[in-house]
């Protein structure tokens, strides 16, 4: 056969391979579009603009559906402008339709405090978000709403700046201690210090009351979307980047990876609380750490985190217990308010915890400790958080699902894989729903396959529910780069594999995600309950690789063609 005929024949084989790969295990090549939610508000789209109706009903393998992990995509940070305007709606509509056609289950969006309540105390303007939510609904997607009580700007991936409400910042001009503060006295205006959670400094309201009133107003003004089943998750922002942590590492104060960060408890309110706690424990002479180094130090260069460091002493243990418990209590109190605000609604509450993977393999876990996660080899710092979340029936959302140890700097002793295994296992043992997201944008099969492995660490079960399975995965984030042909092609395969090679399923009950009315939080935990949860346990077994792999077919086939051509040279 002439060379050109051989190439044409090979190209025909390649096309067939691609078609077969796209069909998946169901053997069906047609994609079935979503059934729509009941409408809330006025439709923004004409009938001609709506996604095409399905040409045939979806069919599922019911046992395989038990392996279905829904996929959500985080919307751009500035989808609603600082001026509270939903700009470029046509572009967003086009992108949402592309996500829907790719089988994506829904989207996640930050609902910024600094935008909605910018005009003054209790002057809420939800109009732009209502327009966005109506469009998401018209495009047939579900919605996860983040109550974003933090500033946008200063963290990795922050492409826009959205400050806290100006009237809050004005209060900080006369009382700068409302902000987190490091030992040098530098203020961080990203999030209010937990030291003012119960201080009536904001026109007579405490910080917790600010958050509570905001959530109650959200429920009141978004009740039609909630009742229609559009909004399924309320993720409650509990710190910088919306995460339950202290702002121990921030680029605006000079931090660069993999610095250990700094403790953030030197505002006058937290200093007074620590002094009271130390005095109550019989040690009035104890003060806050003065030997824990600076943002970009390594553990070994400090007295606190170094070999036989302060963190191992009675004084160090007392401080770290106080520091981490303050964070857990902060999350507990605000989630209790969220539970009251959304009581009876068919939604799930959620909270996000940061994946602090650098220095995880060092004895002191310094970067985790400064962030508020008191996690050591002989002490689990994440299971107490999961236990707290369990009392509110809240989802434990964790980051850095895409990361592998081999991709990290060896000198920073990173352990993202071991960290994810520890945290997810602890959540499952505490019987909370565990969800997650990638920390950095990825468009490659390696990143997707790591996320797939973590979503079902023991693999697919063909006889029903797998031993461990994540409640959902959110991809960070929607962008022009994601929607480029090659990137989006791989992403669509990733979505299909998260769905266990099943069609998109609009009925949450079919994959055990039915949502009932939110019940009242269980009784508050006592300190002994939290301490009991710190006992370390081995993580569940994890596979070496996912059994639902995303293959970069273009790359594989390109290599195959090059190898075949080499035979004729």
- Give the termini separation: 15 Å
Biggest sheet features? 8 strands, parallel, barrel
Radius of gyration: 25 Å
Strand content: 5-15%
**CATH structural class:** Alpha Beta
Shape-level CATH architecture: Alpha-Beta Barrel
Number of strands: 10
Written account of the structure:
Substrate binds at residues 110, 150, 158, 352, 357, 399, 438-439, 477. Its EC number is 3.2.1.2. GO terms for molecular function: beta-amylase activity. The chain has 569 residues and is an alpha/beta fold. The chain has one domain: TIM Barrel, CATH 3.20.20.80. Helices cover 35% and strands 9% of the residues. The chain contains 17 helices and 10 strands. It has helices at residues 3-23, 62-65, 89-101, 113-116, 127-138, 166-174, 207-221, 223-227, 268-280, 314-341, 366-371, 383-390, 416-429, 445-455, 485-498, 527-532, 553-566, and strands at residues 71-74, 106-112, 142-148, 179-181, 187-192, 231-236, 348-353, 395-398, 434-437, 472-475. The strands form 2 sheets. Strands 1-2-3-6-7-8-9-10 form an 8-stranded parallel barrel, surrounded by 4 helices. Helix 7 (207-221) runs parallel beside helix 10, helix 10 (314-341) runs parallel beside helix 12 and helix 14 packs parallel to helix 15. The chain is globular and about 70 Å long. It starts with a helix and ends with a helix. Residues 1-38 and 41-56 have low confidence and may be disordered.
